[in-house]
Specification:
The protein is α/β, with parallel strands linked by helices and 253 residues long. It contains six helices and eleven strands. The longest helix is centred in the middle third of the chain and has 14 residues. The protein is globular. The structure holds S-adenosylmethionine.
Length: 253
């Protein structure tokens, strides 16, 4: 499924976990930390602007690239409520591999996006594009990598969150079915429930994959970048043998 056809449930996205949209959330603070040092930023796959708008809120010019028109719409609706952010926030259609911006950035990041780059060719195209836009002293950060190949256990659709707004309960369900060693099918279902009855529902299937950090090291090298640090969480804990995810920070070799 093309990126543009995913995330049709954009209006449910921020309800997945209300703490994630809080500027005090660890992942938001993690990316903000880099942006504050860099003074400008480019986000690849900005979604509803969860992180981007927090950066703009600190008066740091931030560019956001997002392929899904409905995610862009959700992001713009949020931005439109905050006119004080307008000078600092630029939202572009496009993908991480194709977008061209006639400027360079001291901080480029991808938060919760890399599972959408499902082949090494796609990763290579993204990293070439990162290199094209990264300033001489720039830093690139990408999360959602793995330390070792993941277990290939399928997980059936199961409820992962619920949020109540007034008398409506919004529920999110996730499931995963592996297609081959690299790729899985990610199932999502979003429901709005009123008085025990589902009054709105969306189902979405997308293809995802995990890239192991060792492979990423090699791909970064191909475009002239090298890893500066590897963390296992958004509190800057260095990667250990038990890491469930890897977040890489890279710069020019
Ligand atoms: C899980 S959301 C994460 C959104 C946001 N970065 C956050 O942290 O909340 C993933 C986003 O990546 C976008 N996306 C998918 N493929 C992409 C690509 N090739 N380049 C850039 N963004 C992509 C999706 O449209 C979606 O909005």
């Amino acid at each position: 499924m093309a990126s543009e056809q995913q995330y049709l449930h954009a209006h449910f996205y921020d309800l997945l976990d209300s703490s994630r949209v809080d500027p005090a959330d660890a992942s938001v603070r993690f990316f903000l930390h880099y942006a504050l040092r860099a003074g400008n930023a480019l986000e690849l796959g900005a979604g509803t602007g969860r992180v981007t708008l927090a950066i703009a809120g600190q008066h740091i010019p931030v560019w956001a690239v997002e392929p899904s028109p409905v995610m862009r719409a959700a992001c713009l609706v949020k931005a439109a409520q905050q006119p004080h952010l307008y000078p600092f926030f630029t939202l572009l259609p496009g993908s991480a591999q194709d977008v061209r911006i006639n400027r360079s950035f001291r901080f480029i990041y991808a938060s919760g996006v890399s599972m959408h780059w499902t082949s090494e060719d796609q990763w290579h195209a993204v990293l070439e594009n990162v290199a094209r836009h990264l300033a001489d002293d720039g830093i690139f950060v990408v999360d959602n990598l793995c330390l070792t190949p993941p277990e290939h256990n399928d997980s059936p659709l199961a409820q992962v969150s619920q949020a109540r707004l007034g008398e409506i309960e919004y529920r999110t369900y996730f499931g995963r079915t592996w297609i081959d060693k690299q790729r899985y099918r990610f199932h999502t279902r979003y429901e709005a429930v009123y008085q025990g009855v589902v009054i709105e529902a969306y189902e979405d299937d997308s293809i995802g994959s995990f890239l192991c950090q060792e492979t990423c090291y090699g791909l970064l090298k191909e475009v002239g970048l090298q890893v500066r640090a590897a963390y296992q969480d958004f509190s800057f804990t260095l990667v250990s043998d038990t890491a469930e995810q890897v977040i890489l920070e890279a710069g020019w070799s």
